[in-house]
C-alpha cells in the first residue's frame, strides 16, 4: 500500500525528482493500513477455523465391543436405563408379536376399539431367546453391519452372556473419520426373539442413536434396556472419542480375535464395500 501511494504521489507531482510524503500523506497511509488490517482480521474471524466438512461427525464414541447378559425374560420390555446417558440422542425398547406389521417405532399400550384386554395386552413374557439380530446404521440410515446369531439348539436364558462387535472396532486410527465414514455407526438396532407360553413368537426391538458428541459415555456397564443388561465393554477409540471415561476391562481384544469376529459375523452392505479404497483394518 505504501509503495502504491508513493508511486501515485510521484506521478502526480511530476516536478519531483524523488518521492516524498507530507505529514498529511503519512496520516492517510497509516489510516488506510489500519483499515486494511482490520478488514483482513474480520474475514479471518468469520472463516470457521478447522471446520469439518458437512456430514462428518464430531466424534465417534461407540464401544468397539459389547458384552450383553440376557435378563428380564419374565417381565415386559419397557425397562430403559440408557435413554438419558450422555452421548445418546434417542433410545427405545418395545415388544410385539411376530406375524403382523409392528409400529415404527414400536409402541406399547395402543388402544384399539373392539379388542379384548388380552389382545390389547398380549403376553410378552418368554422362557428363552432363540435368535438375535444386531445391526448398525450410518448417518443416512443405511445398514453398515449386521450380525445374526441362532440359539435354537441351546436357547439363551436369564443370565446367559453374548459378545458382539461393533463395526467401529474396524476403524483405523491412522485415518480420519471422514476417510472411513462408512464404518462410523450412528444408530444401533437389536432384535431378540423368543416364544411365549401360547407358542407365539415375541420380538423385542431395542434401538438407540448416538449424538456423535465427544467425551460422552453412551453405553454403560450395569444398564438394562429391554431384555439385555450391559456387561463389560471394549471402549471407543480414544483418538475418535477423547476424554471418554474408561470402560470396565472385562474382556480383552486381540487383532486375531477382532479380525475373526468381524469376518465371521459382520456383513457390510454393498454401499460400504463399494467405497473406493476402503478395506478392513485391524486394531
Topology of this structure?
Blueprint: H1 2-12, H2 23-46, E1 65-70, E2 88-97, H3 117-120, E3 131-137, E4 143-150, E5 161-165, E6 187-195, E7 201-210, E8 224-225, E9 228-234, H4 255-265, H5 270-273
Antiparallel strand pairs: 1-5, 1-9, 2-7, 3-4, 3-6, 6-7, 8-9
Description:
The chain has 283 residues and is α+β, with helices and mostly antiparallel strands. Helix content is 19%, strand content 23%. It has helices at residues 2-12, 23-46, 117-120, 255-265, 270-273, and strands spanning 65-70, 88-97, 131-137, 143-150, 161-165, 187-195, 201-210, 224-225, 228-234. The strands form two sheets. A five-stranded antiparallel β-sheet has the order 2-7-6-3-4, with no helix packed on it. Mean pLDDT is 76; it is low at 11-18, 43-50, 100-118 and 253-283.
Strand content: 15-25%
Instruction: Give the helix tally.
Output: 5
- Helix share bin: 10-25%
By secondary-structure content and strand pairing, the structural class works out as alpha+beta
Rounded Rg: 30 Å
List low-confidence stretches: 11-18, 43-50, 100-118, 253-283
Q: Please tell me what the overall shape is.
A: elongated
Instruction: Please describe the biggest sheet, giving its number of strands, its sense, and whether it closes into a barrel.
Output: 5 strands, antiparallel
